Amino acid sequence: MIKVLVVDDDKLVRKGLISVMPWQDFDMEVIGEANNGAKALEFLDNHEVDLLLTDLEMPVMSGMELMRLVRERHPEVYIAVLTLHQDFEYIQEAIRLGAIDYIAKVQLEKERFEEVLGRIHRRITEQEGRIRKLRMLPGASSPDESFATDQGYALMSAVRDPEPGAAVQWAVRHAERFAELGRQVLFFTLGGGEKGEEGEEGLDELVRLASTDSGWTLIRLTGIQGRMPAEVYDRVRKYGDGEFFYEYDPAVNVMDRSLSVLANSVNPVNDDLTLTVMAQWLAPGWIYRDGLFQANLQELKDLRLPQAELSGRLYVLADRLDQLAGKTGTSRIRLPAPLDSWFQVEAWFDGVRKQLREEWGRAPYSPEVVQSVMTAVSMLHEELDQPVTAADIARRVSMSRSYFSQCFKEIVGTNFNAYLRRIRLDQAKHYLQNTTKTVLWIAQHVGYEDEKYFSRSFREYTGLLPSEYRNQSDQGREMSSGK
């Protein structure tokens, strides 16, 4: 039985979830509830809990802070987060802190309760099964003395929660010392000298098996002689969590590394530099210029962002590129999940580039004209709260006002003013659904100086006044939460 703790500062939300969700159908039992992170942590310190279902925004102690402390004090507890927010910052941070699922309240409807619990139950049971399978393998332990051999081996998987394959089975059968350093990293040494009792042929067999196990790579690691296991394991684990993401190549089955250079080279996040690099992808020059495309890729790779951080940034970029494509796109631009390696990141960018070139190439204009119009579209999204005009934007992209308007309509699919109005009011809908900001604040932040004019435009666009739209959204969330 999976024991569940539900944490939300809204009592009606907690009671609704506890009473309506089909817990028993998925071998789950709610054993406690709390209205803030501090009380939840106190409960966890005194009770055995398998799954923590927590809201993110709460008084006293937020859900994010609760997750950080739970990871330190109760790392065995699985966490799923429940929140109104769908912004990438929240998604990114929740993933970074180990959440196995991210549930948006606005998407949680009664008919989806079984789907949500089924997904959480499946992830928990799959991960537990893989852990048990690995821990039952022979030799899964390691003495505390330093290594006598200078060479060790690591099997690393670019796939999250991989199945132990033939190479793993071979390793634990032949290993002198073996350690599981995470669900994606296994380390071992071989007896009978550096090549083991099987000799060179045995290692050839290991290489062959590693090449057939999807996602697994064999790392031959030198320089471990005289080193304590804790030091070696720490470096291997950090490499698996960081730099391996950028170095993994499905065409390379074996990699040689020295312990002296094997370190976590994923850099601390430099927000200013990261924003600058990401902004380059919103200027469409890379779609047509090979050199700029490769340069942008290299600059992004050189940031060496942690995997969760990179995924969060790309999630937002995909949404922005989808917006920039406008009505010219016949298919949506979406980020596949998960991205397990930089190899997949490059493949995604390449696919997006080909898609945009094909779609924008249908317009009867040169790539330079299409690029200028897409640059203009990017400006509109970046300066949504500013008083922009078609004449001003045309001047900034070096086009005449009349020609710019003609090209904009044919390439984007609607005229300049209609497009600007749509993206402004779509952003207003987002603010009304996901924030408690006043209507005046929202009007000003989507480019309307007059609140009454904004409300009139909003009603023409949606059929509802801003206050009515917000109330309708709130009622939908209440119904989804079981109130």
Whole-number mean pLDDT: 80
Count of distinct structural domains: 4
Choose one word for the global shape.
flat
**Runs with pLDDT <50, length 5+?**
133-142, 193-199, 477-483
Assembly state: single chain
The class by helix and strand makeup works out as alpha/beta
- The neighbouring-strand order within the major sheet is 2-1-3-4-5
Radius of gyration in whole Å, from Cα? 27 Å
Would you write up a description of this structure?
- With 483 residues, the chain is α/β, with parallel strands linked by helices.
- It has four domains: 2-134, 3-Layer(aba) Sandwich (Rossmann fold), CATH 3.40.50.2300; 137-258, no CATH class; 271-414; 419-480, Arc Repressor Mutant, subunit A (Orthogonal Bundle), CATH 1.10.10.60.
- Helices cover 53% and strands 13% of the residues.
- β1, α1 and β2 (28-34) form a beta-alpha-beta unit.
- Residues 3-120 form the Response regulatory domain.
- It comes from Paenibacillus rhizosphaerae.
- Keywords: DNA-binding, Phosphoprotein, Transcription, Transcription regulation.
- This is Two-component system response regulator YesN.
